[in-house]
């Protein structure tokens, strides 16, 4: 069973699986169902929220999954990552308003708005900068504009949304892209099938 993320990763994930010979008789992206059998009956996929993919794989509800590295880092899930699938490339970055020049280190505590609290906390702790995390689920760029936060930590693809809102990247934390995740136990008990999946996806990515 393979867990696929709903949203922007779904179409490229399905395209990748199709190139690997895993196809479906119905339009998965347009269906309201959550579980699908492949046309040949040899594979099954489930559709879940992006942040849930590592959890389904870690606990063995799915043998493999496709999710962004950002999601994996934030979840802290203990899974194998045999492949960088090459799509969904972006950066996890710290951003601030244009003209913001006070170094973080001169503030007693930096307020950081983010939907990646684990990544943000690890980053600022590694630099010895005390921070107060403000969890948000959307429109992260708004937080500094209304004085809610000094910085944001978010996923940045082109940077256009930041520029449109008078903000800029001040530091890149790490790069992110789609990854194939594999359950550790499944890799032992279903090694032949999963090695074939890894090899096939690696050849067509």
CATH homologous superfamily descriptor of the largest domain:
Periplasmic binding protein-like II
Question: Helices and strands: which structural class?
Answer: alpha/beta
- Spatial strand sequence of the major β-sheet: 2-3-1-4-11-5
Terminus-to-terminus distance = 19 Å
Strand content: 25-35%
Helix content: 25-40%
Number of distinct beta strands: 11
Architecture of the largest domain, CATH level 2?
3-Layer(aba) Sandwich
- For this structure, the CATH topology of the largest domain is D-Maltodextrin-Binding Protein, domain 2
Mind describing the biggest β-sheet? 6 strands, mixed
The helix-strand sequence is EHEEHEHEEEHEHEHEEHH
Radius of gyration: 19 Å
What is the top-level CATH class of the largest domain? Alpha Beta
* DSSP helical segment count: 8
